[in-house]
Amino acid sequence: MKTRNFSFLIVAFTASLCGAAPIEEHVQGRLLIQPREGARESDVVNAMARVGARREKVLDRINVHILQVPERAIDQVSDTLMKTGLFTYVEPDFVAHAGAISVTPNDPDYPSQWHLKSINAPTAWGITTGSSSVTIAVVDSGVDSTHPDLTSKLVAGWNFVNNTANTADDYGHGTAVAGTAAAATNNGIGIAGVSWNAMIMPLLVLDSTGSATYSNVASAIQYAADHGVRIINVSLGGTGVSSTLQSAINYAWNKGSVVFAAAMNNSSSTPYYPAACTYVVAVSATEPAGTLASFSDFGSYIDLAAPGDNILTTMQGGGYGTWYGTSFAAPIAASVGALALSVKPGMSASALVSLLENNADPLGGYTGWNQYFGYGQVDAYKAVAAAGSTVTDTTPPSVSITSPASGAAVSGIIQVQGTATDNVGVTAIQFYADGTVLSSATSSPFAFSWNTANYANGSHTLQVTASDAAGNVGTASLALTVNNSTIKSTTPPTISILNPVSGGNIAGNVNNVTISASATESAAVSQVSFYVDGSLKCTDTVSPYTCAWNTKKASVGAHTIKATAWDSSGNSASAMETVYKQ
């Protein structure tokens, strides 16, 4: 049976190891170590005992010890042993082959799954078949937990429609999406999934009519991120631009999660959301011949492509059937990401997306990015091979707050200043007050403006975190006392947008545009927020007030920019203009 399924519209609430060796294919739980010259045997034995390692054998002539450790702790054990200074190296017992291996699972319907060979999955499986420590959240209509190819693959999720733990699929779409990504494989029945061992977290947002609210989708994305899920698939979309969706995606991204979304199926360049949101991997659909599927959407927001026609997968009720739509291209791309994470779990969200883009296969005669295939069709083998060949950075950034001093008494608007350094480079700096993130930056030294008038008099905690590209995080914090008077201003700020010029054009080949604004007030401006087409893009607290607008996913035509300034008394004023993307 062939079911034509065009990803669903969302109805919105509002209108509109040598210390860090790459984890390539290796013998599970086995490490090879070489004590440094002069290291005492008793110290070596004690170091191994402290990490729970068991010595199985010693290669005497080269002084290499073969250890057995728990596989899930292999990274931590390696790092701990190297930090003792007792060893010249610590590494997994890697596996070599005569050449690239192509693995063929014994699932009887595997030969009918053309898409798996198209993305080089069988060769990727020669390196890894995935890990049960990697979970794919399926934000959809639930999953049939009784299906023989899915029953062993599920972890607890949530039903956001009925607010219960019952995630049974009463529509069928989520079951098909889940099987595409991670059906039980090499089990002698049914089909094969892309990531054999990945688990599936069903997050039910689509009701029995195939509709979902943006608020439920945002809640599901947040839920997945809060439960440590790194891969989130959303095979649905709506045309309404939403700051709520973007906020949820930003939240997930900052926690290391990547959202993959269907581009939708209207043969159009009209942006759909969440696919067109910033930080989302938007996936278009391809045919067996490597062409864009006739139904697939395209446009400036496309990041990757994946097979999306005649996808044989699991069906609600225990059977199998073929579906098509970008709803199935998205989980194929997502599960390639899951395979890459199983090889290198320490990758940051940005590193994972870059890896998938840099190792995609160009299609249609294009080189580099294009609006139909993005950076190309995902290639599972290239992705996992690249993941295994990259050295892991495990050193967190160093953060220091130089002003104000710890224990200081403060009032009004103060500047929180300091530095953040890293052995490779700092990618993001975030400022928190009492555990809530207030602002961010990307370079050091940093300076954040904090309006103490918004906080009760008394003790408060400030914190600054810095992240690097590998996902390592460094932190500095201090406690101080707020002591403010209660006099408030009633005069709103004065604000104007300086760049881009109202009515001006933005070149189509420019990915980033800096929006800048001037804001003044008799007391002090506490923050300026920037919106594009009603969606919050960023907030700045230090003059000159700027925002980097990634126009890659902005459609051609008119866009409205708004800048809103607040002062320390809560007064606000806004400026608006229209610009045009060519």
Characteristics of this structure?
582 residues; alpha/beta; Rossmann fold; Alpha-Beta Plaits; 4 domains; seven-stranded parallel sheet; five-stranded mixed sheet; 32 strands; disordered N terminus
Give a structural overview:
It is a single chain. This protein is 17% helix and 34% strand. It is an alpha/beta fold. It folds into four domains: 2-13 and 112-344 and 377-388, Rossmann fold (3-Layer(aba) Sandwich), CATH 3.40.50.200; 26-94, Peptidase S8 propeptide/proteinase inhibitor I9 (Alpha-Beta Plaits, 2-Layer Sandwich), CATH 3.30.70; 398-482, Immunoglobulin-like (Sandwich), CATH 2.60.40; 494-581, Immunoglobulin-like. The chain has a seven-stranded parallel beta sheet, with helices on both faces. Strands 18-24-23-20-21 form a five-stranded mixed beta sheet, with no helix packed on it. Strand 4 and strand 5 form a beta hairpin. Helix 6 (214-226) packs parallel to helix 7 and helix 8 packs parallel to helix 10.
